[in-house]
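Structure first, sequence second, as always.
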């Protein structure tokens, strides 16, 4: 076994840190809330909240896939709002 895979297997077999507490999992969906202001959304009727949550998730994934600009999600969102060419570039990633 290579050194990297051996290290990976050692890390996955030990779910506890040195202090004896379980390691905390990082939740990646938390970046959606501050980046797209979900808390300020007034969409509450019928299936609209779930539908828009899916759209927001797709938007964050597309912004994360776009690697030509080294910016955060919020800044990429702003740049896409200001520059139609950049928005088209992001939307082309979905094809």
């Amino acid at each position: 076994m290579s050194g990297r895979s051996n290290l990976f297997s050692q890390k996955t077999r030990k779910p506890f840190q040195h202090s004896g507490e379980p390691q905390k999992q990082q939740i990646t969906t938390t970046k959606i809330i501050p980046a797209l202001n979900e808390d300020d959304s007034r969409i509450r009727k019928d299936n609209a909240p779930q539908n828009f949550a899916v759209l927001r998730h797709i938007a964050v994934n597309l912004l994360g896939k776009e690697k030509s600009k080294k910016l955060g999600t919020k800044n990429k969102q702003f740049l896409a709002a200001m520059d139609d060419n950049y928005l088209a570039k992001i939307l082309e990633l979905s094809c």
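Margin note: The chain has one domain: 26-92.
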